[in-house]
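Quick log. Single chain, no ligands specified.
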Amino acid sequence: MKTIIILFSSLAFILSANSASAPDPVLDFAGKIIRAGDKYYVLPTVGKVDFGGLVLKVGNNSCSDGIARSSADDNGLSLSFTPVNNKKGVIRVSTDVNIKFPDFTGCKESNVWKLTYEKFMKQYAVVLGGVEGNPGQETLYNWFKIAKTSDGYKFVFCPSVCSSCKVKCSDIGLVTDEDGVPRLALNDDPYTFNFYGVTG
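-> predicted structure:
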């Protein structure tokens, strides 16, 4: 009987330890869990609501030069997320995810986000053309994290998909490019936002 009790206690300890180690789920503005494959709008946190959601900046020589903040009072394009473990349906804080514009198919590039060096901005910025899945060194710049802030969330580039890779972690904020457009790029001043589920 003692053996059974000890085994049961050990199993309970393991289960509780595993559940305690799981990061918190990311929540939308209504308090609902963000789930893989569902669609969400990303809108600025209270105090920054004078601008809209995220859109594509259309360039002269290509379909898109990157991810920008809308200058209009609108929701922008919806986003969806794919976790590094595609068997997990819940998106969790500070874990690797792919981000994409699921309804956008207007460019030859994929609709998955990636980080790339923009010579005109002289820094790394978020653009389309990433690869979904296949975590590792080859796809290092396609992975982002969602971190909690005091009033919402922020995007962070700090991938954990390659244990041998040296990565300099950074927040993602808004940087004005050569055309005066505020774009998502590595920045010490993060762009903070909340998620809103797409209905209908």
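The chain has a mean pLDDT of 86.
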